[in-house]
Every structure is written in C-alpha cells, then in structure tokens.
Design brief:
It is a single chain. The chain has about 140 residues and is mainly alpha-helical. It has helices at about 15-30, 45, 50-70, 90-110, 110-115; strands at about 90, 130. InterPro entries: Pyr-dimer_DNA_glycosylase.
Length: about 140
C-alpha cells in the first residue's frame, strides 16, 4: 500500500489508479470493514489524526479531483462528503524520498512519464499535507 504524500499530479495513470484503489482499501481498514492491513505503516498518520475517516476521505477527494482533471471516471460516490480536517504534516525528507521512489518506478514502468517530473525541484505535497522540516518519516519502509 502506498498513500503518496506528493501531489497526485506527479503520478502516472497506473500510479493514480493504484493510489485510488489503495486509498479505498485504507478507508475500509479505518472503517473496520477488513481484517487485513490494520497495522500497515502507511495508515499511521491517518490513525493519529483526530478524525481518521474524515482525513482519508479528504485524501481520496484530492485523488478523484486529479482523476476528473485528467478525464478519468473514478466513482466519487464511494466517498463521504468531508469538511476540512486538520492538515496532516509531512516532512521535506519524506517528500524527497517519495519523489525519488516514483522516479525509479517510472524509469521501469513509464519512461515517457518520467520526463514530466525529472526536473521537479520544489515538490508540491498532496493537498491534505502541510510541509515541515525533517527526514524521512519513521513509519516509512525504506528500500
């Protein structure tokens, strides 16, 4: 499961579809509708929020907004309407790690998409996140 902290604009089609699917799985976990993935490290930051379900729904709304902008048809009815929740934080180190991780994936999966992000220097986070100083997040499984 990868719930990207970087803005979904950086993701290729496969990445956007994957984060949608994995985000819906995360939502099911937070709703108690599945027994798997309950201790997955990617969920920690949502579980630590005052309103985990509102946070994951807000996260997914930004994913479906990006899909809409690209002309894709993700099923928005799977999401609850949300009110703004407290922003989650993400470290500069985490954003850098994720962008490099995506670049490696695109090198193999979609080199033509890599050209779009190869020169990105200032990373825009997913709209739910506010950037803070720091290294890669403790919950990240480094490869």
């Amino acid at each position: 499961m990868r719930l990207w902290s970087i803005h979904p604009q950086y993701l290729d089609t496969k990445g956007l579809v994957a984060v949608w699917r994995e985000g819906l799985l995360a939502k099911a976990v937070l709703e108690g509708k599945t027994k798997g993935y309950t201790n997955h490290p990617q969920l920690i930051r949502f579980q630590q929020n005052d309103s985990p379900l509102l946070a994951i729904n807000q996260y997914l709304h930004a994913i479906v907004d990006e899909a809409d902008a690209r002309g894709y048809n993700f099923d928005r009815t799977k999401l609850r309407n949300t009110v703004d929740v407290n922003e989650l934080t993400v470290t500069v180190g985490q954003l850098n790690y994720e962008l490099e991780h995506l670049r490696k994936k695109l090198t193999l999966r979609a080199p033509h998409e890599l050209e779009r992000i190869v020169k990105v220097e200032t990373i825009t986070p997913h709209p739910l996140f506010r950037i803070i100083e720091g290294d890669v997040e403790e919950w990240e499984k480094l490869k």
